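Structure, all two chains, one model.
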Amino acid sequence: MITIEQLTIRQGGFALRDVSFSVPTGRYAVLMGRTGTGKTTILEAIAGLRRPHTGRILLSGVDVTRVRPAERNVGYVPQDAALFSTMTVREHLAFALTIRREPQARLAARVCELAELLDLTPLLQRLPFGLSGGERQRVALGRALSFRPGTLLLDEPLSAVDENTRGDMHELLRRVRKDSNVTVLHVTHNAAESLALADIALELRDGRIFAEGRAP
Amino acid sequence: MTAAATPYRPRRDWPFLLGLALLSSVYLVLIAAMLVADMSFTTPGHMLSALRSPEIRFSIRLSLISCTLTTLLSLWVAVPIGYLLSRFDFPGKKLVDAVLDIPIVLPPLVIGLSLLILFQTPAGKAVERVVPFTYAVGGVVLAQFAVACAFAVRTMLVTFSQIDPRGEQVALTLGCNRAAAFWRVALPEARRGMLTAATLAWARALGEFGPILVFAGATRMRTEVLPTTVFLELSVGNIEAAVAVSLLMIGAALSVLTLARMFGLRQSLERVL
């Protein structure tokens, strides 16, 4: 469950004022809005990378407004994937578990499982350099899911993916959601993506959220 | 209506390109001519007799050791400063940034003099009771460090500014604290920049003369580094030895540059393959 209460963030030229919405556990919310309206800022605030001026952020009912990113149990896939250029695909999938000192056997099993789910097995030894847009996004998605977060934040995950593989990615995102029961907030400016994936459609306009609920 | 207008044609490009090539070649020719002149001035015999001289051997050894120490110290300081300035905003940041440029713009002699005066203060004297700097080997390293570090700092600042902080932010969401995000994500991505910073600092330290002369002196077999040797040999009219030692320094600097380039190239090849 993601709950945003009267969030206000000022940053450079624009401000988000009094933004409130919530996404129930296990639901897939798509947040639409034009470029520059502050969609990414909201994701950053939920991930803990940007401190809000006022307002509260609750994840699974716990107020995390002042909690460090590492303790929020949030998987974050930024727009450009932001892969680690010095690490192989395997190291990306293992990263969060290595930090958590997960035992080797369980770590290896989780990496295998993710590679299978995201169709990354043949790429495990590769560095990010030379991966296609879709491959990069799948690695970023696997990295974000590896530690089984309660919340998944996706920032324009399909913007660097070509038309042909977009359908596959939709399918993949649906599968991820079904398998992991994670609460998803997906940011996009593409209405088709919203139609294909959302059970909750939100729109950010002039610093305010407009909701149109939809049955899953 | 008018007759069909002649199609518009901009002027030719070659005068511009020729101008670029001519102006660039002036500098390249100057560099090459200096090197060729040095080489034609000396003979293998001069080089060998220079290498046999115990004073020159001492200064080669001291130069290699002090430059390496200076490089390590510079990186140790330049990496945190570069990271701090590229990632955090704090009051007085502009001032810090400006202060870091002072060693680059100060006349070298002034740096030497400032060090000399610093170690005449009560605090400086207290330090010298533990580690001697003035007219000692420690002073050679400190004088090199005072200047070379500024170049390493600039390089690391540019390096970290060019690395997207997004990677470290993702690492924070994956469970890293700030330190882990730095060690595991930012630092590995900065390794090329560190290599460049080390090369620059090393080459800079090798050529450092003014501050060393003032602060550490030019005592043979004690604080004599290669530029000191060139100065001392020149001052007694032994131009052959001065040129031979200069060529040694040119050789050392070029090898470090080549090594760094080769290493950089190999890494980029590894990435492509």
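The interface with chain A takes residues 164, 166-167, 169-177, 180, 184-185, 188-189, 191, 271-272 of chain B (CB under 8 Å).
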